[in-house]
Design a protein that fits this description.
It is a single chain. By secondary structure, this protein is mainly α. The chain has one domain (about 5-345). It has 15 helices and four strands. It has helices at about 5-30, 55-70, 75-95, 100-115, 140-155, 160-175, 185-205, 215-235, 250, 255-270, 280-285, 290-315, 320-345, 350-360, 370-375, and strands at about 35, 50, 125, 130-135. It has a two-stranded antiparallel ribbon with strand order 1-2. Strands 3-4 form a two-stranded antiparallel ribbon. The chain starts with a helix and ends in a 21-residue tail after the last helix.
Length: about 400
């Protein structure tokens, strides 16, 4: 396969336009109130931060894709529905939309892609020479997969650089593990996503100081999860598949691991799986003593190893062993995070346990007053005030 110079040009355009858009959107975000406010619970950033990173990335990607101008109806459908999700995500960041509005929008976006392009998860790959086809179950399976991954990126967006770096890792995994034969189209689309992320990551990680600091916002994290989900599906399905279905989950292993284990623990406690708390891996590692930047490095390194590990297992032992290895690693991850959670509970008693201690033996636990809960004192697991939205809600 010959290299198309338009891919490099498209990436350069995506990076440049994303950077210019970021500079233009920073003051606009502050004026419009598109800002994330810190609190005393889960949101521990130091100052009010504009939520315009996702918008800047989207504009940069559009410019890069427009320059490439080589996409099929599938890519076109994904791009237009991505814009629809970005618009709703910005409205959500500003107005705190109801959950049903976001869910209906996501379902509509997936339906448009499936109906207009005919692309969905039809096969789970080859096992001992037999194709594991899904038939009509492929469509609901696709819906669950896309919504699951976009929520996984939304939920793990908890410390500077994490969601963006994990998107870069996923894009790198796709480029590394994909079979570069035939068309450049889907590889070009993924490369443009990675290129548009670079200015945002520089700003989010503080390379431009406090003035240039931005967050992704729900619009950005949902957009990245949605685009990566469809990239993985599009490249792993059909006759000319460029990525083995058995390697798809390895490219996004950390967001998948974290989301599944966090939701399982919440359900085990009898809570909603979308209850906001500090149970994600980045919270647990920081509460165990790691600094935020060290936590980021550890998690990105772990995420980067996963596609390589999956590829090695797939090549040496086959698809079935590959699937078993993924499940075993998921179980080990769940055990590790559970141990971190128990250690934190021993060192930092929960508000409920602390209230029992203060009440004394035989006395009912004293609950914090409603006013105290709303002010964030001792209400780490309670929903934050309206302007202090948690990204840990279903998008």
């Amino acid at each position: 396969m010959t290299f198309d110079p338009r891919i490099l040009e498209s990436c350069a355009i995506a990076t440049g336009v994303s950077a210019v858009s970021l500079m233009a959107l920073l003051p606009l975000g502050r004026r419009l109130g598109l800002v994330d406010y810190p609190d005393q619970g889960r949101k521990r950033h130091a100052f009010d931060t504009p939520l315009v990173g996702g918008l800047a990335i989207a504009i940069g990607m559009l410019a890069g894709w427009w320059h490439a101008d080589v996409f099929t109806p599938f890519e076109d459908a994904v791009i237009w529905t991505t814009l629809m999700l970005v618009v709703v995500g910005v409205a959500d960041d500003l107005l705190d939309l109801r959950v049903w509005v976001r869910v209906v929008t996501e379902l509509a976006a997936i339906a448009i892609v499936v109906i207009s392009s005919g692309v969905y998860i039809r096969s789970l790959g080859m096992v001992h020479g037999h194709e594991l086809t899904l038939g009509w179950l492929g469509i609901p399976f696709t819906v669950v997969a896309v919504i699951g991954l976009l929520n996984a990126f939304n939920l793990i967006d908890g410390i500077d650089g994490l969601a963006g770096c994990l998107a870069l890792v996923a894009a790198g995994g796709i480029e590394l593990l994909g079979r570069h034969t035939g068309s450049n189209l889907q590889f070009a689309a993924v490369a443009v996503i990675a290129a548009a992320l670079v200015p945002y990551l520089a700003a989010n990680l503080g390379l431009f100081g406090r003035v240039g600091k931005v967050f992704l916002g729900d619009a950005g994290s949902v957009m990245l999860g949605y685009l990566l989900a469809w990239s993985l599906i599009g490249m792993s399905q059909g006759q000319s598949r460029q990525l083995s279905p058995g390697l798809v989950l390895w490219c996004v292993a950390l967001p998948v691991f974290d989301t599944l284990t966090v939701m399982f623990r919440r359900l085990h406690r009898g809570e909603s799986p979308f209850t906001a708390d500090r149970g994600h891996i980045h919270h647990l590692l920081m509460d165990a003593g790691l600094k935020p930047r060290d936590t980021l490095i550890c998690l990105v390194a772990f995420a980067a190893i996963m596609p390589v590990l999956g590829h090695v297992i797939h090549q040496l032992a086959g698809a079935l062993a590959n699937a078993v290895a993924f499940v075993v690693l998921l179980a080990m991850y769940a055990l590790f995070t559970a141990c971190l959670g128990r250690r934190r509970e021993m060192e930092q008693p929960s508000p409920r346990m602390a209230s029992r201690v203060l009440a004394g033996p035989g006395m009912p636990a004293r609950r914090p007053s409603r006013m105290r809960q709303r002010s964030g004192e001792g209400a780490q697991h309670d929903a934050p005030p309206r302007v202090q939205r948690s990204t840990d809600l279903p998008t």
